[in-house]
């Protein structure tokens, strides 16, 4: 049977399919148009900005770090440009050690370079490149560039480097910079200055480099670079220059600093010299020192261990972190307290028989049999302990505390370095708060007696001692000690003085100040320092002192031969000159140096000779040489005593104990 086509039905189906196809095409076209309108009209601004951002790259321009100079313009910290070989760990294919071994065939890489790189890698958690070699020669750059294709993830970079041309000289003042580690990065991110550190790899870590980081760093600039789709830089669109950091002009006289550091030799100790009228710190010596250049690119483990484990502790900033009993250098201030408070007159005299008895305890003088008749002037000149045992007993601990506090004893001086220690100016209230055991909280008479000769709980930094002497000879006018004298604008070279106005005035009678100065001059003319300052071309005042390291039991006599090198007394000397209008006041301590006149005073003499007369050790025309200093000694720095802010459940070895005999200070 023949079947006929239904033409009308097929035509209807065809039209239906055509309509569906047209509808589908129209819907797709509509969606395309809608998307086009969304992208080109509604979101035009956003995507245009994004496209521009992809096309333009902002590259930070790191500013030049400011210079550090001494008061005479000698450069102490500077910058120089050099090439470094840097590795980006995330881009290294295969084993890193194998890659470094291959790299060492092209560019010299020492074991020290490897150790330093390993330490940097451990400390850094960022994806930034890290240097494996610094200061490449032109030949090394050329050799690596020729084989660059072999080392993906390794590049040569042009960098600015920090250099400390004088090495160990004044290292504790200048400090050093180092690469930004994760801790530094977190601190920067939390600060308001995070944007200013984009592209910066280094930051101040210690000393003035750290405390003046904001001024030295400068302001980061940027450059707009057009980038092709391949990532290649096409052209520079705009450039905002970085603003270099400010320069620091210090109050330090670096030549004086050198003279003092050389005078210490390989002994341990500290010296701080201050201009009393301004607070300018003229010399700030901490011995032994270290080379800050070791830290710039990250110190290697071996060098770090040598510094950190040294029994001489070269990394300790002794002038403001070392805390010591002041010994007899405290006596001029005790004498001034006696005059000001009416406890003594210049004519007040005692008969020194060689000791002072209190509660069955004998406090001995340094001279067997005593000094005989001693008035206030003689008590300073010959450093009579017995006189000050009696004076301390008459004054009492709290009176001593209240009088000494304005001079800065046991107080922060506010010098422009971080981590200054407070030291300890004791009082009965302090002892009650410090000790937990009721028996230890009680202040006993022996505690007071020891204060009179600068022993017992007394513990001050060399910086505090120099500051106190400077305040005394400045007639009670307190000037804040500072190391930075001028901040020089890195662009305009405009100078901003940092010398502060007087901080305060201690109400003292001029006749009492003049008497103490006269007695201190007597120390250098006829007293304990007369031999050291014989023939000086200027008139100075001073005071010798010793700080006892070990106590001596009742009935025993002091015998240096029975003590180890690190049990010997610390040697002190404080000085000022010229007498009529002092230009310099200083305090020097030699750890375990023995007698102040033998170890510390000769260093002070060399410092004063150079600063006042321009004479260096060995110059012709100098005065007769001072007594030879003792041999080098090997004891850890005296630990800081408890401060007003701390508490303890135990007693102190400095506390007076019945049955012990105080030997007095040995000048």
From TrEMBL:
Sequence ranges of Low complexity compositional bias: 623-632
EC number, UniProt record: 3.4.16.4
Source organism of this protein record: Collimonas arenae
Protein name: Peptidoglycan D,D-transpeptidase MrdA
GO molecular function terms listed in the Swiss-Prot or TrEMBL record: penicillin binding; peptidoglycan L,D-transpeptidase activity; serine-type D-Ala-D-Ala carboxypeptidase activity; zinc ion binding
Binding site for Zn(2+): 352, 365, 371, 384
Gene it is expressed from: mrdA
One Pfam family it belongs to: PBP_dimer
Transmembrane segment boundaries: 20-38
Domain Penicillin-binding protein transpeptidase: 269-608
Function: Catalyzes cross-linking of the peptidoglycan cell wall.
PANTHER family: PEPTIDOGLYCAN D,D-TRANSPEPTIDASE, PEPTIDOGLYCAN D,D-TRANSPEPTIDASE MRDA
Catalytic activity: Preferential cleavage: (Ac)2-L-Lys-D-Ala-|-D-Ala. Also transpeptidation of peptidyl-alanyl moieties that are N-acyl substituents of D-alanine
